[in-house]
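Researcher: I'm preparing a figure for a lab meeting and need a structural model of a single chain. I don't have an experimental structure, so a prediction will have to do for now. The sequence is pasted below. Please return the structure as C-alpha cells so I can convert it later.
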Amino acid sequence: MLLCAAWTWKKFKLFIGKDINETVKLARDAFESIGIDSPWLDAEILLADSLNLTREEILVKGNNPFPSEDSKKWQNIVLRRMKREPVDRILGKKRFRKLDFNVVPGVFSPRPETEELLSRALERIPENGCFLDLCCGTGCIGISIANERNCQGVLCDIDTKAVSHAQSEAKRLLPNADLTIVQSDLFENIEDKFDLIVSNPPYISTKERKSLPPEVINFDPEGSLFCGPDGLHVCKSIIDKAPNYLNKNGWLLIEYGFCQKDNVSNLFSSDWTNVKQRKPWGAPRSEKDFFVEAQWSPS
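Model: Understood. Here is the structure written out cell by cell.
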C-alpha cells in the first residue's frame, strides 16, 4: 500500500502543477487512472471549492500559479477522492433542486435522480395541502416541497441520526416552514392523513451488493440502501399501509430500483387509480422506470 501511494504521488507530481490548469489535469489523470467516471468534472469541482472559486473562475484563472499555501489541503482532497469518497461528502454539501443540503456521515446523501420524484410531488400537492415524506434522510424532498409550495408537512425516518440532521436542515434552510420531523418506522408514529405521501425508501436488493460502486457501499449507511432479496419489502409495506394515511384522491409516490424485476404497478389494489410507473424526464423508451405514482380513490 505504501509503495502504491508513493508511486501515485510521484507519477502525478503530488497533484500540484505549475498553474491551475495543470493542477486540474493532474487530478483528472489521477482520478481517471483508477476508473472514476467523471474525472475532469470532479477535479474542477473539488479544486474550485478548495480555492474558494467558481468553476468559471477556474477556467478564467487557469494560467495563474497554483497557490502554494493550499498545497497540503489540495493533496488531501485528491487522496480522499482517490479512496472513492464521493465528491459531495468531500465538499460536505449537495445541491438538490434549489437548495444546498449539508452532507454528514451516516446519513444518506441526496441523489440527482430523486429530483424527478420531487418534481412530480410538486405537481401533486394541492395548494395549502399536507404531505408526508417517508424515509426522509436529509429531508431533501420534504424541505424542498415546503420551499416551493404553501403547505404543511411531516417528515420521518427510522434512523435517529437522520431525523436529527433533517431537523437541523429544516431549521437552517426554512426556519418558518410548517414542518414536523419525527422518528418513525414508516407509519408507526404517524397519526394524521395527507394529500400526498412521497418516499425514497431503501430499495436495493442484497443480491446487488457486489455491483455497487465504492462511493455507495463504503459511504452510505446500509440501512438506507438495502431491502431484502428483492428490494421491494419496504415498498410493499408502504403501498399496503398508505390508504390509512391518505385523504381520498390523495397521491402516493415511491422511488424504487432500476433492477426490480417485479412490476410495481401490480402491487396496487383496484382501489388505486392512475397507477403509472415513470421514467426520468426525457428518457428513451429503453430506459427503466424508477418511480411509481398512484391515486387513492376507493369506491
